[in-house]
Input
Amino acid sequence: TKWVYIFGDKKTEGDASMKELLGGKGANLAEMSRLGLPVPPGFTITTQVCTHYYEDGQQYPKELKEQVHSAIAAVEALTGRKFNSTTKPLLLSVRSGARVSMPGMMDTVLNLGLNARTVEALAQEANDERFAYDSYRRFIQMYSDVVLGVDHDFFEEILEDFKDEHDYALDTDLSGSDWKEIVAAYKDKVKEELGRPFPEDCEEQLWGAVGAVFKSWMIPRARTYRTLHEIPEGWGTAVNVQAMVFGNTGEDSATGVAFTRNPSTGENALYGEFLINAQGEDVVAGIRTPQDITEKARIEAYSEKPSLEATMPEVFAEFKAVCDTLENHYRDMQDLEFTVEHGKLWMLQTRTGKRTLKAALKTAVDMAESGMITREEAVERIAPSSLDQLLHPTIDPNSERDELSVGLPASPGAACGAIVFNSDDAETEKANGRPVILVRTETSPEDIHGMHAAEGILTTRGGMTSHAAVVARGMGKPCVAGVGAIRVDVRNELMSVGGRNFGKGDVITIDGGNGQVLAGRVQMQEPELSGDFKKLMEWADSIRRMDVRANAETPTDVKVALSFGAEGIGLCRTEHMFFEGERILAVREMILSDTAAERKTALAKLLPFQRQDFIDIFELMVDRPVTIRLLDPPLHEFLPKTEEDIAEVARQMDVDPEELRERAEELEECNPMLGNRGCRLLISNPEIAEMQARAIFEAALEISKRHGRRVAPEIMVPLVSLKSELDIVRASIDQVAEIVAKELGEKPAYSVGTMIELPRAALLSEDIAASAEFFSFGTNDLTQTTFGISRDDAASFLGKYQERKLLEKDPFVSLDIEGVGELVKISAKNGRKANADIKLGICGEHGGDPASIEFCEVIGLNYVSCSPFRVPVARLAAAQAVL
Ligand code: ADP
Ligand code: MG
Ligand code: MG
Output
């Protein structure tokens, strides 16, 4: 087996299509080499080695050693240097790289191959002791931390003490002999901690680092990240071993990161940061404040430090050209890492750039309009679930702002919450239902769980490409980064700014849109959905086949749904209307009545309310489709529970409270979910359906007159399992229609259908479809009844099921396609057999879940219906389902 792939000039063996084998980083390094871009040569040890390693008791395949050695020989030939040699020593970087990038999850070791002898050789060759020992101390620190497990804080401490002692402000102030001293102190520290010396043997160093990369695949923080992002464990990581290039060789050297477009706004302008005389992750680690790459960005940031464009115009021009090449080649915005060694540009990484939703929309629309990609591709590039971010509130522009400071607007949206200073507290508070803002000097991969729990993130150090900024954008969380004016005292849980102190639990607001940090809670407002979003959604609308409706019953919800582009109402639940205000009294009166006559009296009180509900909805919807579900829940849900309630109803009905209580007890059911509800209730209390049908017809005729349009509500009978159930309820609806037609001199337009939410109904759909003009798949109940899992009781075990991977996803969130989906499929097919024109839709929570929507497209449903806020998600997902 071939376990190792070389990259560099003409020898390159891999390419961008080989991400599964080479990991994202390795595949792209190979692709850049193929494109003729300046990439230091190296080789990739495949992800298969990682898989093999874990399957075979943490052992490497036996051919690996030999293949690595010949790859090193190839790199030596390409660079004219030699590994483990005292003349022109070859130094290596050892870098992890899974199929998808996992920012900051895996650790990189730089300058590998240095020891007491090679460091001297390097110093002599470069005629620069400072550079050689600066590289060496970096190597010892990184290697000790990543491979040997000696905490990097030890080294930071030694360095900080040394700097204090010598009055040095920056790392770059240290001389060669200073670093030499530090190196000696570092080595002593390692020996003290481990009881054995830091490895001098280059071969040992190499395999130690390679092993550490594979081991890091299984460390808790990597596993957490994978779980959160649904990355399979079996993918494994590759290891990239690459010749070092040095950004720390002086003032004509630098290292940096860049995006080909602004990752925050999507603006089509190169965007990035760099540091002179620095190496590796210095830029993202926030060690010094980085400089901007372009003049434009420098001016916008009011930075006094010169841009790359100004200091190294030739390097900048070359870099700009590389950016264009890569963006055109990959046809997407790229996130790049580069190093300049004595004025020579080297590319170290390219990948698809993570971006905010705003930037994703803008780049997709811009690229489609410039012809770089098609509209279909643009639509495919936006993850439907990410649209949730757009629904983030922003700060009301008219509200008072008690500004504490301003930092970098690292990730958009505003958030408000109580201060916490560590991630565990963030998690605890969140669990207690308390929104929090995570305040840190800078976040690290250990903070992922806290960032997830927080409403927003505030850091005092680090730039737009810092860990906090990148991760927050990925999560769609508001983030303000690098607020230098704020001091954070983690130990005492205190944040101070401008002479004011804030402790844990104090409420602040951050505005990730402009970088403001505000004291207290601030008025928020809902976002406006226009511009790029609107355009992309229009493209999606022109692509999708299925209609998108909303589940809504109040005028407020209906308005939101319409503003988000809903084309109809797929589920109007009438029971919500029964709880409102004084109606509940009449409802209770109805339920507790003994005779049909009494029930009718109570229902007559409800009729005007119910009619007005429908008038309000039809007024907004006019001739757009509206599916109204007749009363569904078990009656006891409406019963008075407290003594006062019972007394009140008794007074109203003029009956004895004791009698009322008994009647209420009679109505109690052991298992109401499977009890007297839905069509069963409508059959045992036919007056209810009659009243509701009348209210619907009268309202529809009223609006139809008002607007001169045909208003044809779809009346839905819930919980049917027998055709005869539907027939009975349908007959009474038809009868009311005739009575209303006589009374008002006009025949109401309507259709009658049923909810398919019981397995029997799904299986016997051919039969039932003979009496139905439409089916709506009520997949919430259908999931409960297919699994036999009560949704309200599922929490105690479903979580564990998911942990143990018995279930991949929560079936109440994403449709169980194999089981519940099979029933839906059978039902749709058989329903159409009996009634070719039958209209089919889905109205469970699943109607807003992208994976479930794709399934609905595959089986040819006519529409999906979801909660109003999910409508944009569903529109986009429905379009992607077609592509
Ligand atoms: P990550 O996946 O965390 O980004 P990388 O493998 O990209 O880790 O390495 C981190 C940084 O190390 C890079 O951004 C780059 O600055 C530096 N680096 C990696 N390989 C080399 C190399 N061959 N020469 C110089 N610097 C390197
Ligand atoms: Mg890293
Ligand atoms: Mg990188």
